TrEMBL record:
Gene3D superfamilies: 1.10.287.140, Leucine Dehydrogenase, chain A, domain 1, NAD(P)-binding Rossmann-like Domain
Record's protein name: glutamate dehydrogenase [NAD(P)(+)]
Origin superkingdom: Eukaryota
Family of this protein: Belongs to the Glu/Leu/Phe/Val dehydrogenases family.
GO MF annotation, one: glutamate dehydrogenase (NAD+) activity
Reactions catalysed: L-glutamate + NADP(+) + H2O = 2-oxoglutarate + NH4(+) + NADPH + H(+); L-glutamate + NAD(+) + H2O = 2-oxoglutarate + NH4(+) + NADH + H(+)
Compartmental location: Mitochondrion
Length: 565
């Protein structure tokens, strides 16, 4: 039977204490003996900082920290919190295996050091011939962060701001994100340093195909090696060029070649529901918190979306879809920010109507309809609202603007939008933050479904829809017969219109969206459980997410071993 997100949600909604759901977990919830389970006298705002190397402590104070170090700071805080547990588990192993405790300690530290650095950093520089006959050298990167699981996974970004540090940081975020939502991949990321608006379609195709070839030559991509996907300024078109290049070269004998990249168009190996997956996933994850009275009260908020106001920074793939879903739930969009500025209307902006304007004009300025215009994209951060959704780029919320942010809950659609210093300020103000590694994990979750579809060579529901339909009919007949046997009269069992729709009209998209909703709800539930288990404040979801992710990455490495010899 196909479960739609609303069905999953109905299953989950009556549970007032979501922790109870966590007994049914998708991954390994941190548990075990030993270690700090909270109750220490550490300042909750800096929990996990004690014992960090001084240079990382500094990262926690900086206005504009190095992006990679920023991710490392978050990961190391979680490692610090988990270290006593890891040592206790090693001690148990030592007792079983007879390996001395000192060696076990080295092993814990070895694993921690391994998580710290990317396993492979690749920069390529290649020429393309532009339409006007001139030549240009393009800089591009691919980073493999942690290969505790294969393949590795992460999008490809086209932007003038791309640099190796950014790609490294984004690859590390992918490791933690995949672990957070229990998607069995290591983390990777790619970037090409171009402003795509300055190139023709023909030039972009050349760049994409050549970038693909450079990675293929080095054996850095493939369905079982590393599987890229869309990110900023890339989408189905670029994914098609990439997979086509793979299939016509190295992958021409590989039956699974289609699985070398995800985010492909539907008619070229893609999956229904990937385009909207990241924004939809952000909304799915938000539901568990926003509809939970206990949680919302704990951050000084009433539950529910109806009448709540929200603001969105970045109206691309993630932001536009997230805004649409929040509005459909009854939320009121107060403001939208893009590169050219911010528009604001206290009476609300109709997201559907704005989308039509945006699709034609690619700017917020000039939309009119009673909106007030503000020059800077960051002006949106100061508008009082219930929910703020940074969905543009990294480090938009910083030490200098965090104090002026006036919202209850931040939902991170972008990767790395909040610096550690800003995090601490917001924590002290009691603002909850749904962190990127859960908030935008809907994209990689549905990419995972696409990859599974590709390597299984069958679409979701193809084998089961007919069978499920037949089973359900038999079940209804059987219920009718039992009733007749017992009551002695015919009772017509009439499926409700909703049930009939599910039975006869289910599509691949229904399965994908139900799988996405399930993943996000289960992970959100796991994080609430983690906050309680480690004595974290309810709003400290980032630390909970890192603790939960790093526990899983660590456990995989611990089981597998670290070195070949
Ligand atoms: N596309 C996906 O499936 C996923 C994307 N993400 C992250 O979400 C963020 C957005 O990605 P997409 O929506 O895919 O990219 P996109 O290219 O579709 O949209 C990004 C939008 O943000 C705008 N923007 C850029 N800088 C801005 C600024 N300073 N202020 C306001 N607007 C600005 C751009 O003009 C563009 O409209 C990125 O951080 C990306 O890494 C994360 C997970 C998956
Ligand atoms: O869909 C994917 O595989 C990765 C998307 C991505 O780049 C991200 O989550 O940041």
């Amino acid at each position: 039977m196909v479960l739609t997100p609303s069905a999953v949600w109905r299953m989950l909604r009556p549970v007032s204490n979501p922790c109870r759901l966590a007994s049914r977990s998708m991954g390994h919830v941190c548990s075990g003996s030993g270690g700090d389970s909270g109750g220490s006298d550490e300042d909750p705002a800096t929990k996990g900082e004690k014992g960090l190397p001084p240079d990382l402590v500094k990262v926690g104070e900086e206005e504009n920290p190095n992006f990679y170090r920023m991710v490392e700071y978050n990961a190391y805080k979680a490692l610090n919190i988990l270290k006593p547990r890891f040592l206790a588990s090693m001690k148990e192993r030592a007792q079983r295996s007879g390996v001395p405790e000192k060696t076990q300690k080295h092993r814990v530290e070895g694993i921690m050091a391994l998580i710290k650095n990317p396993t492979c950093v690749c920069g390529v520089h290649f020429p393309i011939k532009r339409d006007d006959g001139t030549y240009e050298i393009i800089d591009a990167f691919r980073v493999h962060h942690c290969n505790h699981k294969i393949p590795l996974k992460g999008g490809i970004r086209y932007s003038e701001e791309v640099n190796i540090d950014e790609v490294k940081a984004l690859s590390a975020l992918m490791t933690y994100k995949c672990a957070c939502v229990s998607v069995p991949y290591g983390g990777a990321k790619g970037g090409v340093r171009i402003d795509p608006s300055k190139y023709s379609e023909n030039e972009l195709e050349k760049i994409t195909r050549r970038y693909a070839l450079e990675l293929i030559k080095k054996n850095l991509v493939g369905p079982g090696i590393d599987v890229p996907a869309p990110d900023v300024n890339t989408g189905g078109r670029e994914m098609s060029w990439f997979v086509d290049t793979y299939m016509k070269t190295f992958g021409h004998t590989n039956i699974n070649a289609m699985g070398c990249i995800t985010g492909k168009p539907i008619f070229y190996g893609g999956i229904r529901g990937r385009v909207t997956a990241t924004g939809r996933g952000l909304w799915n994850a938000s539901q568990l918190f926003i509809n939970n009275k206990d949680y919302m009260n704990s951050i000084g908020c009433e539950p529910g979306y109806k009448g709540k106001t929200f603001c969105v920074q970045g109206f691309g793939n993630v932001g536009s879809n997230a805004a649409r879903y929040f509005e459909a739930e009854g939320g009121k969009c107060l403001a939208i920010a893009e590169r050219d500025g911010t528009i604001y209307n206290p009476d609300g902006i109709n997201v559907h109507d704005f989308t039509e304007y945006w699709n034609k004009n690619r700017k917020v300025m000039g939309y009119g309809k009673g909106t007030k215009e503000m020059k800077s994209s960051n002006d949106i951060l100061y508008i009082p609202c219930d929910f703020l959704m940074p969905c543009a780029t990294e480090k938009t919320i910083r030490k200098t603007n965090a104090e002026k942010i006036n919202c209850k809950f931040i939902f991170e659609g972008a990767n790395g939008p909040t610096t550690p210093a800003a995090d601490k300020i917001l924590f002290k103000k009691g603002t909850a933050i749904l962190p990127d590694i859960l908030g935008n994990a809907g994209g990689v979750t549905v990419s995972y479904f696409e990859w599974l579809k590709n390597i299984n060579h069958v679409s979701y529901g193809r084998l089961s829809f007919g069978y499920d339909e037949e089973n359900t009919r038999l079940l209804l007949d059987s219920v009718a017969k039992s009733l007749k046997d017992q009551l002695g009269k015919d009772i017509k069992i009439d499926p409700s219109p909703e049930f009939k729709k599910r039975l006869y009209e289910a599509t691949e998209k229904d399965i994908v969206q139900a799988g996405l909703a399930y993943t996000m709800y289960m992970t959100a539930t796991e994080l609430i459980k983690t906050t309680k288990e480690f004595g974290l404040q309810p709003q400290n979801l980032r630390l909970a997410a890192y603790v939960s992710s790093i526990f899983k990455v660590y456990k995989a490495l611990e089981e597998a071993g670290l070195t070949i010899t």
